[in-house]
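My convention is simple: the sequence line spells out the residues, with the fold written below as integer tokens. I include a record here:
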Amino acid sequence: MQIKRILFVFFLTLVNSLASELFAQELFPARVEVVGVQIDGSGCDASSARAVFTNDLTTLSVLFDRYSVEIGKGTAQPKAKAAEKRCSVFVDIAVSPGWTYTLDSVEYRGFVELPNKSTFAYQLASIESSGLQAIGFDQDLVRGPKVDNHVQIVKVKSLALLNKKCGPSQQRLRIKSTIGVRNLLAAIGIMRPKVSIGIDSADGQINPRFKFNWQRCL
């Protein structure tokens, strides 16, 4: 009797394990891999960006290690009232056949130096896939005073399906990033302290993170 009970428990454990594995396989493709990254834009150097998927395949991080804007005292633009940089990154990904994706949100990350309430910093990102629908995310606007790492998650108002039909196993994403700063008092010459947005001091990068939801396709 005891042996039968042990075998029964073992059988249930095995079935549950197999079911969990099959369920997990249905939630995510077997393979999602970044196979190439190219820079297009004057705002970032040719070798200053890379892209990686998290282990659970839900998040694509675009990592910039030399990408910043600064104005005011001690900078190359001491009298400027505003400045902006733009960078486009082409990310080639390989995906298992039979899968497509929606975009859920973008997480903006970086370090801001905003000494007073008249200073602002902002980030803006968009993403498109192989010439299909482009998805733009709302601007992340930060107002001073704040001197710290900054994180802001912006949700897509409705799930954005880039491709309802199965595309090629290798696809190209074009990710556009804009960062900028503004000092409202600089125009009248009252206060021109340093104002900047740049790399996150926690990991040495400024990196938008795009949240993916995977779906089966036809």
The helical segments are 2-27. The chain has two domains: 1-29, 31-216.
